[in-house]
Design brief:
The complex is a heterodimer of chains A (about 300) and B (about 650). Chain A is an all-alpha fold and about 300 residues long. Chain A has one domain. In chain A, about 70% of the residues lie in helices and about 0% in strands. Chain A contains twelve helices and one strand; from the N terminus they run αααβααααααααα. In chain A, helix 5 runs antiparallel to helix 6. Chain B is mainly α and about 650 residues long. Helices cover about 70% and strands about 5% of the residues of chain B. Chain B contains 23 helices and five strands. In chain B, strand 1 and strand 2 form a beta hairpin. Chain B starts with a helix and ends with a helix. In chain B, about 55% of the residues are buried. The chains are: A mainly alpha (about 300), B mainly alpha (about 650). At the A-B interface, strand 1, helix 4, helix 5, helix 6 and helix 10 of A face helix 15, helix 16, helix 19, strand 3 and helix 20 of B. Strand 1 of chain A pairs parallel with strand 3 of chain B, so a sheet runs across the interface.
Chain lengths: ~300, ~650
């Protein structure tokens, strides 16, 4: 029952997150903006369309979207909603599997992009692997900090019952949240790392890698991208909103947190400019430094 | 032990027969491969029995000079022996076909291959210092002979020489190590050896001696030179198996030296971090496929050393559960790397054979012409990048678990663990980047230069397919791995692996891995069903409005890696030869960049130059007649004899 609720929430809601972000951006731009459910409509439309395949491509291109989405779905099974809702699958070390499943999804997408032989997509793929390799230390240092603070390396444990550690490690957790927000924005190719709105010259990471996908393949990619943002957002939300309640109240609380996360992302995208490519590594390394500082603070507190 | 001895004799007999038959290429190669396969069939069941708890087996003898010698099969030896025999049999099968097709004289290749397998098996089984060192030396010389197969090329000769010189420098450390151990304990047998008061000094000797063999940073300079120039099945064997003897040696030495200070483990951890990071970064900067793969061997040795280092540090701090995880990760990664790295080298060999070049920027689009090779290479690439559900992920996960465990040790170990966690995460991302680059540049897109490539013959594909299947099987084996690793880990850590309780983790990893494959397949078929009614259209890749795309406009491997290489310029020190445009109407311009190893450039090359100067001086000061040298040798011999008589 709880597992079903978890799966339902994680499967059904990700596209909504995108809708909220887009509405926030429209509000900033003084437009009415697309309906909140726009991505659902898009997915439905794409699933009923045919596809166009480049004559250069092979099975690698066709396998990219299913394999990428499957990896993200597996990763979704590892995150808890907190409160009385643990992750459907929880074990010591699931934090590592989570990170590497994201890596597997990325690998599938990158190979599919390279299969088209297009220099645009090659460029996007190159930047995707560059930024993610640099974001990886920040993610793992954050995990190490949480593992030290909670004495566990399972998301279910680390992201549940946060209240008491906010009292002890508050400043460190604040730094961690900063680092994880940066990781989430970089991993999802959002401003200030990349602009998800334009498909050509300005956008040179995720969107340009999927230029040649169409029909059901594109539906899987768009849904996968929204799921990935939802997953990394869920981690940030569970850390930033450590409150817990009985199950219905808790779900409401979690969803409210996700809405706030979407609004924050929307505000960032409306008020920041995209960074120049050569500044991105610096910001990612800064995220790693935040996380490393958090580790140091927690280590000192733990051993004191 | 009978089966093991039978396996060893099969290797010896086939080496001898292959040497005698060397005039008939086909027969000679078949005998050589047959011997390796027979050894695997005989030896692997015996070693597997040892892993599952059969009593330890040993044979002892006394040489006419009175030194005692022994071979022993314990769980640690059994773990390495299985890997050695399995991978070498597959490499030999592949080598039989690829050497036949090469059309050149096979010279010693057929005879040397079973012989080096024999030497490595004896290294692993040796239970006394003398047997160990003799087999070790035989292995070194045979690797040199195998590497220099194409000795008419100058780069092959110089790579072989570099290898021979550096590994002998390492061996001299091992001689010193075993000499001290033997004199302080009064026996050459491992069973009776006791470390003297300062085990850390001896451990440093072992770390240098075995580190050179393993290709660990900063002793790695020979590896990227020597491995790529060998025939591909030899490269596969060298990278997959031979460098692992260095790891075996380290583990065996740590057992002989007994309890070690914590700093020994931490130093190994540091060497591991440096090897892993610098190995993968240098690999990113490579433009030739086999050289790229060789640098990845340094990276993977680094990951293995990280596991070993955490194991030793945790052991000295009396945290056997953490140590068990570290050693388990290291041992499993030894086997995993042997599987996927040899798979990748064999696939690279097939590509080289089909296209005549391994320069990444001249290849492309081979997936259409070599579909099976491409599939197997992609599988190996995903496995070496540590992606679930394949085997590389499982062993890296065990190393991660041990590092998380080390977060609760002493402050120095904690600091080491934090740095290692960040480094290992970065290495994972960089390895995936590098293998996306390699796979993409070689197999995807369209051909950059016109080549008439054909799929490799079945006899070459089959060994690769077996290696690929083993990668998948270990990835999904789950708790069975705990059973297999139980005793070797117990030997190293003092407690069995199950006491660290990784069963649940491995069970869920395997289950989710299977679910991953199943859901990807389900989505694939769902997509096919949706498209069944609406036939997809075909068109050229969208060029963003550009009408005449050409293959040469594809993103090259060098461009793909450029952003990462640029970020890490400060550690890579690329050599740059630039002819930049000058003036208003520049005429000529050129830019060339090579990732030359900083250790080679700033340490080894100056040292060699200084040494050469010194030797030039000695040469001028000594007479040039051979007779004088013979006399000098004779006098030295007499003096030594007189010295030794009382």
């Amino acid at each position: 029952m709880r597992t079903a609720l978890h799966i339902l929430l994680f499967l059904a809601l990700p596209p909504l997150l995108q809708g909220i972000i887009n509405r926030v951006k429209s509000a900033f731009a003084g437009r009415r903006g697309p309906p909140v459910l726009q991505l659902y409509f898009d997915l439905w439309k794409l699933l009923r369309k045919s596809a166009v395949y480049s004559t250069t491509t092979t099975w690698v291109f066709r396998l990219g979207p299913p394999a990428g989405l499957a990896a993200l779905l597996m990763a979704a099974l590892l995150l808890p909603l907190g409160g009385g809702l643990p992750a459907p699958v929880a074990f010591a070390g699931d934090v590592v599997l989570f990170a590497y499943l994201l890596g597997a999804a990325r690998f599938a997408t990158v190979l599919a992009a390279l299969d088209t032989g297009s220099s645009f997509e090659g460029m996007g793929a190159s930047r995707e692997v560059t930024f993610s390799a640099l974001a990886e230390p920040a993610l793992f240092l954050s995990i190490a900090a949480l593992a030290l603070a909670r004495g566990s390396i399972s998301w279910t444990f680390v992201l549940t019952g946060q209240m008491q550690i906010w009292h002890i490690f508050g400043p460190a957790l604040a730094m961690l949240i900063g680092a994880l927000v940066l990781v989430a924005l970089a991993e999802n190719s959002r401003i200030p790392f990349d602009d998800p709105n334009t498909h050509l010259e300005l956008t040179m990471v995720h969107e340009v890698m999927v230029l040649d996908h169409s029909g059901p393949d594109l539906a899987m990619i768009l849904y996968g991208a929204s799921l990935k943002l939802f997953l990394l957002g869920a981690i940030v939300v569970r850390l930033a909103f450590p409150f817990e309640a009985s199950i219905p109240g808790h779900v409401a609380l979690f969803l409210a947190g996700m809405v706030v996360f979407a609004i924050v992302v929307g505000v960032i995208e409306s008020t920041f400019a995209r960074l120049r490519m050569n500044h991105v590594p610096q910001i990612l390394i800064a995220a790693g430094v935040f996380a490393a500082l958090a580790v140091a603070v927690i280590l000192i507190r733990v051993s004191a | 032990m009978t089966l093991i001895l039978a396996a060893l004799s099969a290797l010896a007999v086939s080496a001898l027969a292959a040497a005698l038959l060397s005039r008939q290429r086909g027969m000679s190669l078949a005998v050589s491969a047959g011997g390796c396969v027979a050894a695997a069939l005989l030896g692997i069941p015996a070693a597997a029995g040892q892993l599952l708890g059969a009593p330890a087996a040993r044979i002892r003898w006394t040489t006419p000079l009175g030194a005692a010698g022994a071979l022993a099969l314990d769980p640690l030896a059994a773990w390495f022996l299985i890997t050695v025999l399995f991978v070498s049999a597959l490499c030999a099968l592949y080598g039989r076909r690829s050497l036949l097709a090469s059309g050149r004289a096979i010279s010693g290749q057929a005879a040397f291959f079973p012989l080096i397998v024999l030497a490595i098996a004896v290294v692993v089984l040796a239970a006394d210092a003398l047997t160990f060192l003799m087999a070790w030396e035989l292995m070194t010389v045979l690797s040199f002979l195998l590497v220099t197969h194409e000795h008419e090329r100058a780069e092959v000769r110089s790579a072989g020489l570099l290898y021979l010189v550096l590994t002998h420098a390492g061996t001299s450390c091992l001689l010193a190590l075993f000499a001290v151990l033997a004199t302080s304990s009064g026996t050459l047998l491992f069973a009776g050896m006791r470390a003297p008061a300062q085990p850390a000094v001896l451990f440093a000797l072992a770390a240098v001696g075995f580190g050179v063999k393993a290709g660990a940073w900063p002793f790695h300079v020979w590896l990227p030179a020597a491995h790529p120039v060998a025939p591909s099945h030899v490269s596969a064997f060298l990278s997959g198996i031979v460098i692992k003897t260095g790891i075996y040696g380290l583990l065996r030495a740590s057992l002989l030296l007994g309890p070690l200070p914590t700093r020994c483990g931490l130093v190994l951890l540091g060497l591991g971090v440096a090897s892993a990071l610098l190995g993968v970064l240098s690999a990113l900067a490579q433009h030739e496929l086999k050289r790229l793969l060789a640098y990845h061997s340094i990276e993977n040795i680094g990951i293995i050393l990280m596991g070993t280092g955490v194991g030793l540090a945790a052991l000295s701090l009396h945290r056997p559960a953490v140590a068990a995880l570290g050693f388990a990760g290291a041992l499993l990664h030894v086997t995993n790397h042997a599987l996927f790295k040899s798979l990748l080298f064999l696939a690279a060999g097939a590509v080289g054979k089909a296209c005549g070049t391994l320069q990444l920027d001249r290849l492309g689009g081979l997936l259409r012409k070599m579909p099976h090779t491409a599939l197997l290479f992609a599988l190996g690439a995903a496995a070496i990048s540590g992606l679930p559900p394949l085997n590389g992920f499982v062993s890296e996960l065990l190393v991660y678990l041990s590092l998380f465990g080390a977060l609760r040790l002493t402050p120095l170990a904690q600091a080491g663990a934090v740095v290692s966690l960040a480094a290992l995460a970065c290495v994972g991302g960089l390895a995936a980047a590098c293998f996306a680059k390699a796979t993409g540049a070689v197999f995807l897109g369209t051909a950059r230069t016109p080549v008439d490539a054909h799929e490799a013959p079945r006899e070459m594909l089959l060994p690769m397919a077996v290696l690929g299947a083993a990668c998948v099987a270990i990835g999904l084996a789950g708790p069975l791995l705990v059973r297999a690793l139980e005793l070797p880990v117990a030997q190293l850590a003092g407690v069995p692996l199950s006491s660290a309780a990784p069963q649940d983790t491995l069970k869920f990893v395997a289950a989710l891995g299977a679910a991953f494959i199943a859901s990807a397949a389900a989505l694939w078929f769902a997509r096919r069903r949706l498209l069944l009614a609406r036939a997809p259209a075909a068109s050229p890749t969208w060029g963003c409005g550009y009408a005449l795309p050409a293959p040469s406009m594809q993103y090259t491997a060098a461009s793909f890696a450029q952003p990462l290489v640029a970020v890490f310029r400060t550690v890579l020190f690329p050599e740059r030869h630039a002819l930049l445009p000058v003036g208003t109407f520049p005429t000529a311009l050129a830019l060339e960049e090579h990732g030359r190893d900083p250790i080679d450039r700033f340490l080894l090359a100056p040292a060699v130059r200084a040494g050469a100067l010194g030797f030039a001086f000695v040469r001028r000061a000594t007479p040039s007649r051979v007779q004088w040298y013979v006399l000098a040798v004779f006098v030295a011999l007499v003096v030594l004899l007189l010295w030794g008589i009382p």
